[in-house]
Amino acid sequence: MADVVLKNIRKVYPGGVVAVKDINIEIKDQEFVVLVGPSGCGKTTTLRMVAGLEEISSGDLLIDGERMNDVPPKNRNIAMVFQNYALYPHLTVRENMAFGLKLRGVPKVEIERRVKEVAAILGLESYLDRQPSALSGGQRQRVALGRAIVRKPKVFLFDEPLSNLDAKLRVQTRAELSKLHQKLRATVLYVTHDQVEAMTMGTRIIVMKDGVVQQNASPIETYDHPANIFVAGFIGSPPMNFLEVEIKREGDELYLVGSGFSLRATQNQRQALERTGVSEVVLGIRPEHFHDKLMVPDAPDDQTVTAVVDVVEPMGHETYLYLTLGGQTVTARVDPHCRARVGQDMDLVVEMKQTHVFDKRTERAIT
Ligand code: ATP
């Protein structure tokens, strides 16, 4: 397997669209790195440059230390699995999987051995003689994967491979892909716009926006310590709540004061605000860091807000509340036994230690 390094990679399409601006990414051998971001952020372009399907405007692409910019796709020892898996409809599963090896002149016995081995890994043994039209979407996607795996590439590139599957199958295939990664010990670069896929599958997540890397960290680091407002809002569902606040000092304490509420900053937050001198900030609160005051009656008033309940959404294992707080809608994720009533005021305790403070101007995290 292999290391992949992107050094100051930039892509300008004819016509002047700058799709990727000077990105630096290092993917270590056997890592599963997920490139995630909204539509148009440049993730597919990045993947296609690694695959050799798109010319690199500037910068260096290295695989196992070797510069690949001018190496044709077929010599990069990379396999790419697309959203649109495009199997050959007139060939059987066995023939689809064998096709690439045949073209490369691999001996017949070796092809048969590899196809069998990969079919066993993917649970496709009983479908080998069927044509794709007689398979489900998930099975077809597995054949597409199989076709990539039999080639024993150094690096796997995935471009939204699950987006054609229905919700249930997507969850199942997600887990299968993670298992497969452990089995194959492969280096993977995986592109998706789905933050859940990124969180659940990646050993590392790279969040992109407008052709620029916003954060490059483990899933949990990205969730717990988002680098800026964009990442904080993109990773996590329901998304983080953002409230504009003013900073007010009272004695030794700092308070984050917004429309209809005043929350005491934690010691960490106070120190960071004093150190940076930033005065205009945005407070970020994840929905699970609001708690029903009835469950934590001892919580102090300077960690409590009062909001009006607009919508109650029981999800079974938890309940989502949509509330109005000082004219703004916020989402809370509370215990399913919470007795919130639509139209009524509700006291919510904010777990301040878990909240995030961002500089309103730069949108960067302060704490
Ligand atoms: P999506 O999830 O929608 O596929 P993406 O993050 O993969 O989005 P890219 O497809 O990499 O984004 O596109 C990045 C930017 O480059 C977009 O602004 C897009 O319009 C532009 N772009 C993509 N392909 C071309 C092209 N062939 N010519 C000109 N501009 C392009």
Brief synopsis:
The protein has 367 residues and is α+β, with helices and mostly antiparallel strands. It has nine helices and 20 strands. Helix 2 (93-103) packs across helix 3 (108-122).
Task: Please describe the topology of this protein.
Blueprint lengths: L3 E9 L5 E10 L4 E5 L6 H9 L6 E6 L2 E2 L10 E5 L10 H11 L4 H15 L14 H13 L5 E5 L7 H18 L2 E6 L2 H7 L2 E6 L2 E6 L1 H6 L4 H6 L6 E10 L2 E6 L2 E4 L2 H10 L3 E6 L4 E3 L11 E11 L4 E7 L2 E7 L10 E6 L5 E4 L8
Parallel strand pairs: 3-8, 3-9, 6-7, 7-8
Antiparallel strand pairs: 1-2, 1-4, 4-5, 9-10, 11-12, 11-14, 12-13, 14-20, 15-19, 16-17, 16-19, 17-18
The structure holds adenosine-5'-triphosphate.
Adenosine-5'-triphosphate binds next to helix 1.
What CATH calls the topology of the largest domain is: Rossmann fold
SSE topology string = EEEHEEEHHHEHEHEEHHEEEHEEEEEEE
Strand order of the largest sheet: 6-7-8-3-9-10
**Residue share in helices?**
25-40%
Radius of gyration: 25 Å
Q: Helix/strand/pairing class, anyone?
A: alpha+beta
Helix count equals 9
CATH class of the largest domain: Alpha Beta
Q: Ends: how far apart?
A: 38 Å
Q: What is the H level of CATH, i.e. the homologous superfamily of the largest domain?
A: P-loop containing nucleotide triphosphate hydrolases
Proportion in β-strands: 25-35%
Number of domains: 2
Unreliable residue stretches: none
Mean pLDDT, to the nearest integer, reads 93
> What ligand species are in this complex?
adenosine-5'-triphosphate
The main β sheet shows up as: 6 strands, mixed
Per CATH, the architecture of the largest domain is 3-Layer(aba) Sandwich
From the spread of the alpha carbons, the general shape counts as: elongated
Q: How many β-strands, per DSSP? A: 20
